[in-house]
Amino acid sequence: MKIAVVGATGLVGSVMLKVLEERGFGDEEIIVAASPKSVGKMIPFAGRTLTVIGVDDAIARRPDYAIFSAGAAASRQYAPLFAAQGTIVIDNSSAWRKDADKPLVVPEINIDAVKPTDRIIANPNCSTIQMVLALSRLHRQYRIKRLVISTYQSITGTGVKAVNQLKEEEAWHAEQMIKSHGTAPTQLDGMGEHSQAYPYQIFRNLFPHGGDFQPDGYTTEEQKLVDETLKILRDPDIAITATVARVPVVGGHSEAVNAEFEKEFDIEEVRQLLIETPGVILYDDIANNKYPMPILSEGRDEVFVGRVRRDLSQPRTLNLWVVADNLRKGAATNAIQIMQQLAKVK
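User: That's the sequence. What structure does it adopt?
Assistant: Structure tokens below.
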């Protein structure tokens, strides 16, 4: 196969290349494309070196698949140009997710949503992917009535600028500690704004703000959880509300999910359904303090689920704690799994 990675020099793009190598695509023709400022850069891949080219040049190479992680604007501009010549585009941005004519896919759940004529396929938001995968078999068995979601999202979901901000704030704080002989400063006065990805410091802090605020008071990240869940689970009647928080973590996203079902459930059956869900690991042993954490999920493709317990405040309601590496299953791995499934069909 001939595979293009568009946005190859970004945080998710670099993970895409890593996952491609891990999954046996080292001998395929890999085209790495990025913005003009990155053209000419050299990227190591599977024992060889790839040279970054422009997106127009990548289109001219007529790849079989183009995996995008270059932002919504680039996807809207370039994905149709790839698709027009028969390339199958798998896009990691928000550009096509709400488009009724474009499938939004988590392959373990709804790869059948992709029609033979589809040339642009949307990869869901990272926080959506891990949650719907954990809930997919439970929904099939008991039918979800309502979801209340609180997310604790890694800074890596924002990008490399956020990672740099946290590193700079950590270094600044350490320097101030030395200067003040062990007395911690109360705020990061004196920090420059050139590297700020967030309106506030993220070091030793968190804030209930992911994405942009909408007129209704919710953020775009919260709205994605609503819209994408309904589309993937193919059930427009699920009531969903969400609050997104950004936390100073690099390993992955965590979610507290409260799910109310139409049907009564048995907690042991719930646990068994989670065990049987492809791509999910039930990691739930409270007697030994075993529960999912971002540090355990980092670098892994599985979705970890723990703290499985009945909500004692109302009937037919379940609490779950869901954790996954947002750069892998939440982005790169899911996109490549889609490609693998489609290539298998072809």
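The mean pLDDT is 94.
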